[in-house]
UniProtKB/TrEMBL annotation:
The chain crosses the membrane at residues 38-59, 71-88, 100-121, 127-153, 165-183, 222-242, 254-276, 282-301, 313-336, 342-362. It comes from Candidatus Neomicrothrix parvicella RN1. Pfam families: HisKA_3. One of its GO terms (cellular component) is membrane. This is Putative Integral membrane sensor signal transduction histidine kinase. Keywords: Kinase, Membrane, Transferase, Transmembrane, Transmembrane helix, Two-component regulatory system. The keyword RNA-binding does not apply. Residues 503-567 form the Signal transduction histidine kinase subgroup 3 dimerisation and phosphoacceptor domain. InterPro entries: HATPase_C_sf (IPR036890), Sensor_HK_TwoCompSys (IPR050482), Sig_transdc_His_kin_sub3_dim/P (IPR011712). One of its GO terms (molecular function) is phosphorelay sensor kinase activity. SUPFAM superfamilies: ATPase domain of HSP90 chaperone/DNA topoisomerase II/histidine kinase.
Length: 696
């Protein structure tokens, strides 16, 4: 994996950081996750909402005595539809998502019916009457949905009998009120703020005169019951907030504050100017729906730091929306020659439908302010790659990697720990709690841990952080592995130098303690021979000459052994098999022993392996001849998947007081330097040296 390589980029983008995943757009993927009925609901909702726009534009340009303003319900549609779609795509089967989609459909149909009535008025009285009749009772659905959602929050389904009772009361009261509105005699009354009838003063085509008193009582009771239910539900949410703990407690706190805020804002709508009040109501409802979904999905919207970030986002979005609204109102007013319902209506519609695209731009800017460039993984990976390219060594590369990650993602601190827990690199505030520990693996092996400090005011990383950090963890793991390899190489170099010094010291001791005294003895004997010859004692001189000859022969054999151990020219000339047989024959010439040598098909081996195996085998055989009374010595060299060397003898074993010397340490080092294993086993029958050397 490379920092700027394609696999890393694809991994960083695979969980939503990029517009594509697996060749499929997120919109198509999220729609595919919804059941067909809800996809059809979204489709019908979108058609109705879009069809309302031209109808409203035509109606506002008509010069009539009355203006049908109930089309404003369609502006609630985006909030309900987007919230329901978003929630159902991530929490399939959740009642809240389904209810939001139903509310979105009803507001879209209500707005479409009002738009039709506005275009049909006053020439087509029957069409106006039936359209306004639909508006008069259908608008009640979305209002009850908001209440039910608060009761359900944050569960998929009702949690108990109390929830079912409250939902049942809301459903029954809403159904009765819808029936009463549909059957009200006289003029059609669309909303409670128009008790004298709809703006177009249309009679109800299905009104029943005898139900007038009952209908009026139901209407008043519905308002009182709705107010009482809101108070009870707020108390229920406050109680659950008080009793809950952990994330659920934060969720309830958030939705309680949202509910209280909405309850305080909505009454103020009536005091705003006519062109401002609807816009404030729509904006407040949209924000409530979206933030409820966010809280249900358990995003980090709870602590003070996060509230600050969300507040900054909300303020920016509100400023953009008001700016668009104000600009459109002014331009429209200039075009038509004055302020009034038409500029306010056009401004509200443009602001609502432009809110989505503009919110993406604002959200991206606010996200960059608080979360860095996590939504632009290509830039982050390129920055990290440049830092690695400029690093002088592995330690510097780790420091640069962590510094780039913290800077690019606005993280307060990060650390890399080795597999044994040692801190390899540390950047930023190490005292902050660890939000996450990502395992670092390289070539299937765990090499350490990446520790990321949580942003202040949050419990941990968000889902948007993880894909990119997982890809960066691969790059960090490669650097940690390279650092570890460099450390191992340095240790191997140090061990090699130590082994060379120890081997040189051993040869020095052996020459001093073995060959040196032997040659000194020969010199003394030669002096004695000369003295005996001068004194006329040739027989004595002859005996001393024989002794000197024997010692010189032993000295020659010892020198030959040293030469065999130091040089590997024979290996290069004749191959490992012939070199090993020749060395063993040379070593056993001075002391006959039953040598049993078995050498299999070795294939092609590197010079390093041949040299090490020859040196170890000769050292082991020399130890058998020098330090044991073995009568038999077996040497086996064969190649399976790895190269296996075994030297065994019947010399009685190493004994309980055996301590490995320089020779054993040298053999072990030669084998382990090649990545192999070296073992010595001892028993009553003898000792066995086993070596395994990987050849791949």
């Amino acid at each position: 994996m490379t920092i700027d390589g394609q696999p890393a980029v694809q991994a960083a983008l695979s969980h939503g950081a990029a517009p594509l995943r697996g060749g499929e757009a997120p919109l198509r993927r999220s729609l595919a996750s919804l059941p067909v009925p809800w996809v059809l609901t979204l489709a019908v909702t979108s058609v109705c909402a879009l069809a309302t726009i031209p109808l409203v534009l035509v109606s506002v340009r008509q010069v009539t005595e009355q203006f049908v303003g109930e089309w404003i319900f369609v502006t609630f549609t985006p909030g309900f539809a987007v919230a329901g779609w978003w929630l159902l795509s991530r929490r399939p089967g959740m009642w809240t998502g389904r209810l939001y989609l139903v509310a979105g459909l009803t507001t879209a149909v209500t707005g479409l019916a009002a738009g039709i009535a506005g275009v049909a008025y006053p020439d087509h009285g029957a069409l106006v009457a039936w359209s306004m009749w639909v508006v008069s009772w259908l608008w009640l659905v979305h209002d009850s949905v908001i209440t039910v959602v608060v009761v359900l929050f944050p569960r998929r389904v009702p949690r108990g009998r109390l929830d079912r009772l409250l939902i049942g009361i809301v459903a029954v009261s809403t159904g009765v009120s819808m029936l009463a509105a549909a059957l009200r005699p006289g003029l059609i009354v669309t909303t409670p703020d128009n008790p004298g009838g709809a703006p177009v003063s249309t009679p109800n085509p299905v009104g029943i005169p005898g139900l007038k008193g009952i209908v009026n009582s139901i209407g008043g009771s519905y308002l009182v019951l709705g107010l009482a239910l809101n108070v009870v539900i707020l108390g229920l949410i406050a109680t659950r907030w008080w009793r809950a703990s952990g994330i659920e407690r934060r969720q309830y706190r958030w939705v309680f504050l949202l509910s209280v805020g909405s309850s305080l804002v909505l009454p103020l709508v009536v005091v705003f100017p006519v062109w401002i009040g609807p816009f404030v109501a729509v904006t407040t409802t949209f924000a409530f729906q979206m933030l409820v979904v966010v809280a249900i999905l358990k995003w980090d919207v709870y602590e003070a730091g996060v509230v600050l970030r969300r507040s900054a986002l909300a303020a920016a979005l509100l400023a953009v929306a008001l700016g668009v609204y104000g600009a459109v109102v002014v331009v429209t007013a200039v075009a038509v020659g004055g302020f009034g319902p038409l500029p306010a209506t056009v401004g509200a519609m443009v602001a609502v439908f432009a809110f989505g695209p503009l919110s993406l731009v604002v959200r991206r800017r606010v996200s960059r302010l608080f979360y860095g460039r996590r939504d632009d993984p290509y830039s982050v990976l390129a920055s990290v790659g440049r830092g690695q390219a400029e690093a002088s060594d592995a330690d510097d590369a780790l420091d640069r990697l962590l510094a780039s990650i913290c800077a690019e993602l606005r993280l307060p601190g990060a650390a890399v720990r080795a597999a044994d827990g040692d801190v390899l690199a540390l950047v930023g505030d190490a005292d902050l709690p660890a939000a996450d520990r990502l395992e670092l693996r390289h070539l299937g092996e765990r090499v350490g841990t990446l520790q990321i400090a949580a942003r202040r005011g949050t419990d941990g990383l968000t889902e948007a952080d993880r894909p990119l950090l997982n890809s960066l963890a691969d790059a960090i793991a490669a650097v940690v592995a390279a650092r570890r390899a460099a450390d191992h190489l340095q240790v191997a170099r140090d061990r090699l130098l130590i082994a060379q010094d120890e081997e040189r010291s051993r040869y020095q001791r052996d020459l001093h303690d073995g060959l040196g005294p032997r040659l000194t003895s020969v010199v003394f004997k030669l002096d004695a021979i000369s003295n005996h010859l001068n004194a006329g004692r040739p027989d004595t001189a002859r005996v001393l000459a024989d002794d000197a000859r024997a010692e010189l022969r032993d000295g020659v054999d010892e020198i030959r052994t040293y030469i065999n151990q130091l040089g590997d020219q024979v290996v290069a000339a004749s191959g490992l098999r012939d070199a090993l047989l020749g060395r063993i024959a040379s070593l056993t010439s001075a002391r006959p022993v039953d040598m049993r040598v078995t050498i299999g098909d070795l294939g092609a081996l590197s010079a390093a392996i041949e040299s090490a195996v020859l040196a170890v085998a000769c050292e082991a055989v020399t130890n058998v001849l020098r330090h044991t009374a073995a009568r038999t010595c077996c040497v086996e060299l064969r190649r399976d998947r790895d190269l296996l060397l075994t030297i065994s003898d019947d010399g009685g074993g190493l004994g309980s007081g055996f301590t490995p010397g320089v020779g054993v340490g040298s053999m072990r080092h030669r084998i382990e330097r090649l990545g192999g294993r070296f073992d010595i086993a001892s028993g009553d029958g003898g000792a066995t040296v086993s070596c395994l050397v990987p050849v791949s």
